[in-house]
Description:
- The protein has 14 helices and 2 strands; from the N terminus they run αααααααααααααββα.
- It has helices spanning 3-10, 14-23, 38-48, 70-80, 84-87, 90-97, 120-132, 136-147, 174-184, 197-208, 237-244, 248-251, 254-264, 294-313; strands spanning 272-273, 292-293.
Amino acid sequence: MDNKVLEWMTEENEWLNFAVETQLFNHKPDPTVILTDPSIKTIISRVKDSNVGISALKTGKVSYTSTGNAFWDLFFLSDIGLNVEDIHIQEEVNLLWELQNGDGTFVVQDGTKSSYFCVPTIILASLSKMGYADDPHIQKFIDKVFETQRLDGGWHCAINRATGKKLQDTESCPMDNLNILMLLGQYDKFKNDPRLNGAIDLLLTHWRRRSEPWRPYGFGIGSDFVKLKYPAVKYGILRVLDVLSLYPNAMKSSEFNEMLTSVMKKSVDGMYFAESASRSYAEFDFGQTKKPSRWITFLVYRLQKRVNDFYITNNLDNSKAIQPY
Length: 325
């Protein structure tokens, strides 16, 4: 990594320095140093807020398509590397478990059904990263996920597209696949699980066929998809790459490397700009588009590290690894 970029990336705030130290250099700094940061305190407060936080999920009024709520605030905190105990949200998480149905599913948003795995999975993926991977509530949900896997190896929220139903042979939903893979990718035992190859392949094929009039469940890959934005709420290249980088078979694919290369071409002296921004995160550099974003830059370097570590660990030809790092 370019030392100048690294210095720039870590010079502004402790929370990003914490992410760099833990995720790029495998160090274990004390997380308490970042909990007094005003911007991070705001995010933690929102996670605990009765209107937009975890406890508000019971109302069904919190939407995953919006930012500044439990879905994406928790996602951000988990991405930094904080855990549930660090931010003291055990009580809020316990309230979430009360929403779990007997079969392991959740309904946490109005207009969705228990078959909409893509919605609660956003929350559960974050919690699994934050120290709850072995929690029986998440394990029960994962068991149900595999029970409902479709013929092509993916998932779809529509019941009439389930295995054994009329539309069982149609493609799975890219968003369902992405969010479920985001959760399962937190577990080493699933990273090389052949049962996930179909779901992974749909995301890779979607990129390969992006110029064709092929829209699995209405999802296309156009100008909005390739914008660098955080969080990629709907369906965006940074989150697709982040999820696929959890799976070795995906990282070896030409489609993955084409996607990552297309992102890296946007570098300006090793730095990256957010190309779309959410007002909910205006206090952060990924919440504006005029200056380079340290956080977006960190996310790209994290992708590069995963790829390089994969090639090195497996004694593969590292000339194929993403450079430089």
